[in-house]
Design brief:
This protein is an alpha/beta fold and 377 residues long. Helices cover 42% and strands 18% of the residues. The chain has 14 helices and 16 strands. The protein has a 9-stranded mixed β-sheet with strand order 3-2-1-4-5-6-11-16-15, sandwiched between helices. Helix 4 runs parallel beside helix 5 and helix 13 runs antiparallel to helix 14. The longest helix is centred in the middle third of the chain and has 21 residues.
């Protein structure tokens, strides 16, 4: 805070006091990008992003725009989210002077489940690079909407991947999650099955001239529905902060870090690669909450300090929630040319076997047979 004299003399106003910065919470240096990798699949290319209005999708679009593609195609099912990201990108173009004026940003309303619409979009615009970020990702919501979650995350991914192969899109990047590793919930299992579909498809269509890869990472600070906005809101409301378990930990990175690393990982793809983002050490959520309370200028209320401002309440783990997340299935991650991107070798089900299960899955999804969907997963 500035001194009182600075305030009274008008040197500094209260508007100069900044909001709590996400970087303050991370507790480590942010990861700097390698510009050669950022440019490789984006500059002077036609790029398509599904889920363009989501937390990761919208940041991906902003990072891609800065690298001067020819066209940036925004595919989004939510009308307001599409409007918002389109406006944001047009503003970035305006402020950039002449650098980005010629980049065409095209908003396209569609669900990835709509195979005819997606085929029409990809046939019409012929993207060189496709980032598939569209997914239902909130664990408790997907637990309540199992068939729709699986249909979107698995069948939607399969639709897009098959069209990308058919239309000879050069680079396909699936944005996955650490919850896909040894999943304990439907969201994680659906993302793992989406990964397996991609690997099996690539293996079945060998030498197809398309690079399919998947990038897996943990929680992103300040993304929609993530823990930081919830903590900030609970603090604003005067508490208490709700914590599922004293020992719960998560990996964290900032939205720009995650988006930049996704773009860079995609540039390193040779075929059906599994990339993992090195996210530092897992953060204990209890410590994170205490840190945000202190950085907000408040004190923790507990048995040692009964006059504190904000209390932390333990509410128990939610359905399907893990205490600790993992990033890889095996224990053999290899280094890549980027210090923060690792590569894993992982098993998958060959397409010839997988296809039968997927047909069965589609049938039970159409009949809304939730128990059968879980059994197949």
């Amino acid at each position: 805070l500035p001194s009182i004299s600075d305030l009274t003399e008008g040197k500094i106003t209260l508007s100069d006091i900044r909001e709590l910065d996400i970087g303050d919470i991370l507790g480590r240096e942010q990861i700097l990008p390698n510009n050669k990798l950022l440019n490789q699949n984006v500059r002077s290319k036609v790029v398509l992003v599904t889920g363009a209005g989501g937390s990761i999708g919208s940041e991906l679009c902003k990072q891609i725009l800065k690298q001067s593609p020819i066209k940036l195609l925004l595919v989004e099912v939510n009308e307001y989210a599409l409007y918002k990201i389109h406006q944001d990108l047009e503003e970035i173009k305006e402020k950039s002077g002449h650098n980005l004026k010629n980049v065409k940003v095209i908003p396209l309303l569609s669900s990835v489940q709509n195979i005819d619409r997606m085929r029409h979009i990809i046939e019409t615009y012929k993207p060189n690079t496709l980032y598939h970020a569209a997914a239902y990702k909130h664990v408790p919501l997907v637990e309540e909407n199992i068939c729709e979650g699986v249909r979107n995350n698995v069948m939607g991914t399969l639709n897009i991947a098959k069209i990308a192969i058919e239309q000879k899109v050069s680079n396909f990047v699936l944005i996955s999650s650490d919850k896909a590793v040894y999943p304990t919930n439907i969201m994680g299992a659906s993302k793992r099955l989406a990964e397996i579909c991609l690997q099996a498809l690539y293996d079945d269509f060998k030498n197809i001239g398309i690079r399919l890869c998947l990038v897996r990472f943990g929680n992103v600070l300040d993304s929609s529905g993530s823990i930081i906005p919830r903590i900030k809101k609970q603090i604003k409301d005067g508490g208490p902060l709700t914590l599922t378990h004293l020992d719960v930990t998560r990996y964290f990175m900032t939205i720009p870090e995650a988006a930049q690393l996704v773009i860079q990982a995609g540039a390193m793809s040779k075929g059906s690669d599994v990339f993992l983002l090195e996210m530092g050490n897992p953060v204990k959520i209890l410590d994170l909450m205490k840190r945000v309370i202190l950085l907000s200028g408040l004190t923790l209320q507990d048995k040692d300090n009964t006059d504190g401002d904000i209390e932390i309440q333990i509410i128990g783990l939610r359905p399907g929630e893990k205490l600790h997340e993992e990033l890889f299935l095996g224990n053999n991650p290899q280094k890549t040319e980027h210090p923060k991107i690792l590569k894993a070798e992982e098993d998958f089900t060959p397409w010839i076997h997988l296809e039968k299960d997927l047909h069965k899955l589609e049938t039970v999804l159409d009949k809304n047979q939730v128990d059968e969907v879980i059994k197949i997963l």
